[in-house]
Design a protein that fits this description.
heterodimer, A: 437 residues, alpha+beta, Cytochrome-c3 Hydrogenase, chain B, three-stranded antiparallel β-sheet, B: 282 residues, alpha/beta, Rossmann fold, 2 domains, five-stranded parallel β-sheet, globular
Chain lengths: 437, 282
């Protein structure tokens, strides 16, 4: 048995891919999460109301999703509904997160694979390439910065937001601040489209060069989005069958009947299945399941995506291209919300803390995220984080096996395998800090 | 061009995300290693090494020891690298027992008995606290701006009024009640510790209405002292501005959410290391 170990980079956190082969046959392909901090254990005993500020520290990339899931779980336990203005401000916070995440994944994590670079921050040797690289890097950071600025405006702190509280948000957004943000986003939208067009072209060229987009077998898809694309606050998780039909939906409270979790001895993250089947979450699931947004650019990009790749689309590299549609969508959607009055009504409602169970659901950038808390005497006595990256682990491993079988033969291992492993994993944009927590 | 590297131990990547917000470094500095944004397996010789995250696994320990040799200067970035951060909550005995159950997982890096700050392992030249630090603070460290001085406290940057006649009688929960826009959060009955927390964050949390949890750690007035000095001082602030019973405040000060602040006292987390010298802390 030969064991090939590939350390991973340009993803969030510490992970490795380990492939075992014998006589040119692929024996196993494992995705290993290498860290563990123990949030589910050490948060027991925490006063429930402190959760929304502690849990963003699970992950600095997906922090807003955890912040909102925590508030959602407490509101579910206390049976309180936030006022409409608070819901809008929370959505803005969430859109900021989506802009930041999709821009980072597209232009910082995966664009280098298309351009043959190790990083968009690596200075190029000749003057012309350096100019091109510097321009891309500058713009990419400008787009993702618009996302963090939007998180700051709607969420307070720029990485670990604080403004969502049980019953609402701490404050509204003044017309002046909203106008300033709009100006910034209006400037960023064409840059994002231009970068995405460039990314699209480079991806198609890469697809032609490689001859395949990787694992394109059908799969089940899961996402917590409503019928319309703009609803990331769906209170149910929906499932799409491999042939593109919405075949199931369930409330986060009932997730144990639908999602099964298995631990493995080789990774600090486990693996999820849907009724025993392999599932995929993240951008491709949403683009497969979502409807047109009713905005100019998003619908243009969505139409082009579907005309080119069909619906449902299955090839894994399409996760990357689907992220571009969502980047444009989140910019357009944020611009629309910022046009509405955001400081004219109450931002919160009173509530009474109660003991019991609460479930919070957010469609995080990587898929449906559930927080479950059990509260006794105001303290958390049990906590479960149902993490989107974990939903994708089986899908990642299937795709890794496809890549391994392609590049490993009886007489040699094609060194392209190393790059293929990186591309496969990055398509799923896994987040290891979340997956292990 | 000055070269720097980022070594990420067990943490959340929030510090790295914050660094990406400080776009200015792209023009003036050469990034030699940062696995979050770069496929490079070896750390080159660098002038500055930024270390984020706590030492949680034996792999963290190994990498930290190896990599610091290539750096002229080592900077501990963020609460986790400085104190172990929120992951330090896992150092309680009953939680450590749970970690021990993972011992038999031979294919994974072992978890150390405790999450540790990096200066228990290597010599640190400079500390950059914050969860995460703001882009301005990063640039001050990278550029070695000798005249840079962060605001004394979060309170100083927040600027809310402190009306003398507004004296709450009980502590409000962190989430409860409407927040008045211009009035100090302590006057409104919130447990805000901005008065003793190091400034430089632009009071990002307190201005929109959320009490400071102290992620930047103790201000210079406390940083070289033991945590007891801070407890006394916070009691004095509340005695001066409110009529809240001290027992209520005492209990709340021990809450997990203030771990970001408290663990940065050398004596509090039980690490036994000496207090950090204030000149080393940005």
């Amino acid at each position: 048995m030969t064991t090939l170990t590939f350390p991973l980079s340009r993803i969030e956190g510490h992970a490795q891919v380990v492939i075992e082969t014998r006589d040119g046959e692929v024996h196993s392909a494992h995705f290993k999460a290498m860290e563990l901090r123990g949030f589910e254990y050490f948060l027991q005993g925490t006063p429930a109301e402190e959760m929304p500020v502690i849990v963003p520290r699970i992950c600095g990339v997906c922090s807003t999703a955890h912040h909102l899931a925590a508030v959602g779980a407490l509101e579910d336990a206390y049976q309180v509904t936030p006022p409409p203005l608070a819901t809008k401000i929370r959505e803005l916070m969430y859109l900021g997160q989506l802009i930041q995440n999709q821009a980072t994944s597209l232009f910082v994590f995966t664009l280098p694979d298309r351009l043959g670079l190790t990083s968009i921050f690596e200075h190029a040797a000749d003057a012309h390439s350096e100019e091109v690289r510097a321009k891309i890097a500058g713009r990419a950071l400008g787009v993702r910065r618009a996302g963090t600025d939007l998180i700051t405006l709607a969420g307070g702190q720029f990485i670990h937001p604080i403004k969502a509280v049980v019953g609402g948000v701490t404050s509204g957004i003044t017309p002046e601040a909203a106008a300033e943000m709009r100006t910034q986003l209006e400037g960023v939208l064409p840059l994002a489209c231009e970068l995405y067009d460039h990314y699209w072209e480079a991806s198609l060229a890469m697809g032609e060069r490689l001859g395949t987009w990787g694992d394109d077998s059908p799969a089940y898809y899961v996402a917590a989005i409503g019928g319309r694309r703009d609803n990331y606050y769906s209170d149910v998780i929906r499932v799409m069958s491999p042939d593109g039909v919405i075949c199931d939906s369930f409330h986060p409270r009932d997730f144990r009947h639908y999602l099964t979790f298995e631990d493995t001895d080789y990774s600090y993250a486990g693996r999820t299945s849907y009724k025993g089947e392999l599932i995929r979450a993240n951008s491709l699931a949403r683009v497969n399941m979502g409807e047109p947004a009713g905005t100019v650019y998003t619908d243009h990009y969505l139409r082009r995506f579907r005309e080119t790749f069909g619906r449902p689309a299955h090839a894994i590299m399409l996760f990357d291209l689907a992220r571009g549609v969502e980047l444009v969508y989140s910019l357009e959607r944020a611009l629309a919300i910022l046009e509405e009055p955001l400081d004219n009504e109450d931002t919160d409602v009173p509530y009474t803390p109660r003991d019991g169970d609460g479930y919070g659901l957010v469609e995080a950038p990587r898929g449906p995220l559930i927080h479950h808390y059990h509260i006794e005497k105001g303290l958390i006595t049990q906590v479960e984080f149902i993490i989107p990256t974990v939903h994708n682990v089986r899908a990642i491993e299937r795709a890794l096996r496809v890549a391994a079988e392609r590049y490993i033969n009886a007489d040699r291992v094609d060194m392209e395998l190393e790059r293929a492993v990186g591309r496969v994993v990055r398509a799923f944009d896994p987040c290891i800090a979340c997956a292990t927590h | 061009m000055k070269r720097f590297a980022v070594l990420q131990l067990s943490g959340c990547s929030g510090c790295e995300m914050a660094l990406l917000n400080a776009e200015e470094w792209m023009d003036d500095f050469d990034l030699g290693y940062m696995t979050l944004v770069m496929s490079a397996y070896h750390v080159p010789e660098v002038e500055v090494l930024l270390v984020t995250g706590g030492v949680r696994t034996e792999e963290d320990l190994y990498r930290l020891r190896r990599v610091v040799r290539r750096a002229e200067e080592v900077v501990a970035v963020g609460t986790c690298a400085i104190s172990g951060g929120i992951a330090n909550l896992g150092n309680r005995p009953e939680v450590r027992e749970v970690f021990l159950t993972h011992e038999k997982r031979i294919h994974l890096p072992h978890l150390l008995p405790k999450c540790r700050p990096i200066d228990t392992v290597v010599t640190v030249d400079c500390y950059l606290p914050g969860c995460p630090p703001t882009p301005e603070l990063y640039m001050a460290v990278l550029r070695k701006e000798s005249d840079f001085k962060a605001a004394t406290s979060v309170c100083q940057e927040c600027g809310r009024n402190k009306p003398k006649d507004m004296r709450p009688t009980q502590l409000l929960g962190f989430q409860q009640g409407e927040v008045l826009p211009d009035v100090c959060l302590v006057n409104q009955g919130y447990l805000c510790i901005g008065a003793s927390t190091r400034g430089g964050c632009r009071a990002l949390c307190t201005i929109p209405g959320y009490p400071c949890v102290g992620c930047r750690g103790p201000s210079n007035a406390f940083i070289e002292k033991e945590s007891e000095a801070w407890f006394t001082s916070i009691h004095r602030v509340f005695e001066h501005m409110t009529d809240i019973p001290p027992e209520e405040i005492e209990a709340a000060l021990r809450s997990p959410q203030l771990s970001l602040f408290l663990f940065q006292f050398a004596d509090y987390a039980g690490g036994g290391q000496a207090p950090r010298h204030k000149d080393q802390v940005v």
